[in-house]
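Sat 14:20. Reprocessing the chain from the morning session after the first attempt stalled halfway. Input below, unchanged.
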Amino acid sequence: MIASSFLPRARALPARWAAAALWCSLAAAPWALAQTPPKAPSDGVPDKQVAEGKAESLNMRLVGAEPLQGRTAYQPTIQHQGNRWIAYVGHHGDKKMNPLTGKMEDNGTSVVDVTDPKKPKYLTHIPGEEGKAEQGGAQMVRVCAGADLPKGDKSKFYMLRVFGNQAHEIWDVTAPEKPTLLTTIGRGLKGTHKNFWECDTGIAYLVSGHPQWRTNRMTQIYDLSDPAKPVFIRDFGLVGQQPGAGGPVPISLHGPISSGPKGNRVYFGYGTNTDGVLQIVDRDKLLNGPKEPTPENLLAPQVARLDLPPMHGAHTVFPLFGVEIPEFSKNLLGKKRDFIVVTDEAIQKECLEGRQMVWVVDVTTETKPFGVSSWTVPEASGNFCTRGGRFGTHSSNESTAPVFHKKLMFFAHFNAGVRVLDVRNPMNLKEVAWYIPAMTKETVVLETPASMAASGLPFTEASKRRAIQTNNVEVDERGYVYIVDRANTGLHILELTGPARNIADWSAAVKN
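Finished this time. Tokens:
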């Protein structure tokens, strides 16, 4: 479960500033590239996972794996339900056989019991929209306990998911092996993606493509405090995306993260691998201000906006607030700082784009954000540009589980697996662990000569190579790490070992 009110209240400062001028300071900041230590041997990979190669790892160990019926996977969400831990995994579009039903089913949502992470148990598959890749499936999934929602049934659990690009759905997953559809929101959309749901308030920020808006991804805000009775609040997006606007259409939304009522901020990331935008918004003004989508009303809740360079996006914008910097402990000012960790998404195979990576933005004075560090996996450490598939970041974990929060962050890095960074000083990121799973018989080549030609890109020898494509990552309150693979290799459950494990706060970990 994702905590939604973990952030201290951000300063209420003037909302207007010059993005271009601020980016100049951002570009001039000390973007230090962390150096990756030499690779260590794999530590303890089960035989079934090394059938077609050997996992690569440093300070991480494979605990268990689940093939997810060979489906291409996107978002994992882990929920503690009674005495069980359940993983809900969203899938990109495709069609696969479901051995539990004996039927071919359009990719949707996999439900896996991970109470014993060594022996994950596949419970059920909920079919999604027909289609391939981004045009089908049910990529995004969030879960809230009814006990947390203000108007939810206290005995129930609810799953919010997208239905391809058409709609959003709420399911009753109290019995995770027998989910039932509760209601559908926003039929007839032209896009969906990475939603955020505040479990303590019920407010949901749904990434949608309203038919009348000029973009396929903007924000529709709903009150889902009673999941059976959704209440629409407003539409929101960048100026120029609204109905009736003219000129170029700003880059589409990728996903928001809210700090809830306590922090009173919502952080929006726009773009994936190009023209990224970090937008900081006053939550109270967003929810309670004027709602007609005029330029003035869309700008009213904006606290700050940071435009990234053309070849970088803002896939995930994750807040790290109240970080105490040991180096500045004797300074009168600046010893405690607020940051946003911006993660780009690599889109093109074989490095046929700018390097997508991790950027840290200091927002201690939130109207004047500036860059303080960056990080990427050195390509030569694994010959990643010619290994096959995508190389570069995709996303970070979003859980604020105390065992890891403000200590370690986890980044899905496609053919470089999952990478673990020490973020105790976000101005000086240090890699402390990684894990690249072994390929299996299910691992596929995602691109074909036709798809590459349609993109205007060359189909090379590297294009023919199968490769791990670690797509998304999440952690749970017990300290387990969950990664899922875009190239059909399934779910891997990991744990830290060695010096990396010692950084975590195991006194804060939830016991089974």
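The first strand starts at residue 56 and ends at 58.
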